[in-house]
Amino acid sequence: MSHIQPGALTLERVSYAIDGKPLIEDISLDVAPGEMIGLLGPNGAGKSSLLRTIYRTNRPSSGRVLVNGEDVWVRNARWTARHVGAVLQDMPADFPLTVEDVIAMGRASHKRLLESDNSDDRALIDAAIALLDLDAMRERLFRSLSGGERQRTLVARALVQQPAVLVLDEPTNHLDIHHQINLLRFVRSLGITVIAALHDLNLAAMFCDRLCLLDHGRLVTTGLPDDVLTEDNLAQVYRIEASLTRNPRTGTLWIMPA
């Protein structure tokens, strides 16, 4: 499949159910290399369940998840870890690892068992630490960090995997508005394929190329932010009345709940 560009992500009629109860149903989506996609929807809409099918936690009940034209559920977990990086909600933190140790874990899928880090690994780890402004805390225990510092550490770990696709599940949780904006701006600047579940509609409109609106496990609509975040869609999916205007600084859509 040499014609497939690195970073291409395709979901082909993906469904996932637990004990016969569907959590996501028949979702198809094509994500172009380098595109940043935002998954929107209320709690329980299926955002996290869908993301978990991409990084091999939820095996689809039906359908396929393709990265670079390869089915991640046919390839092994090591292959997926080399091609898909993930920053997840509520990762366990009660372990005696430093920030640098956690970031270095991102190189594991590229190495043989018990193989030491080489100079290339160290260069990637140091670059990620610098990019995420973590140098001052590289020797601190991960469990001692604030929520925002942990989030930045996990993004750095995902980057040293050198993934073709980056999956973000509520990446702005635990971050103040300054760090929310900086994190999404940074991720956007990477030029890699990103699919992110987001709660903040205004940040999604500001940073994402396209949005996918989910409700009760189904894809309601996908498209440009202006086409997805309409008064009718917000009323249908979020059950709110909202006024739509423009951010005077960015020109992007701005949603104000009534």
TrEMBL record:
Give EC number(s), comma-separated. Answer: 3.6.3.-
Checking Pfam families in the record gives:
ABC_tran
Give the transmembrane region(s).
Answer: none
Named from the GO MF annotations, one term is: ATP binding
- Residue limits of the ABC transporter domain? 9-241
Question: What Gene3D superfamilies does the record tag this protein with?
Answer: P-loop containing nucleotide triphosphate hydrolases (3.40.50.300)
Enzyme class, first EC level, given as a word: hydrolase
Ordered alphabetically, the record's keywords are:
ATP-binding, Hydrolase, Nucleotide-binding, Transport
Reply yes or no: does the keyword Transport apply. yes
Q: Is ATP-binding a UniProt keyword of this protein?
A: yes
**Which SUPFAM superfamilies does the record match to this protein?**
P-loop containing nucleoside triphosphate hydrolases (SSF52540)
Which PANTHER family would you find in this protein's record?
A: ABC TRANSPORTER ATP-BINDING PROTEIN, HEMIN IMPORT ATP-BINDING PROTEIN HMUV
Stated family: Belongs to the ABC transporter superfamily.
**Protein name per the record:** Hemin import ATP-binding protein HmuV
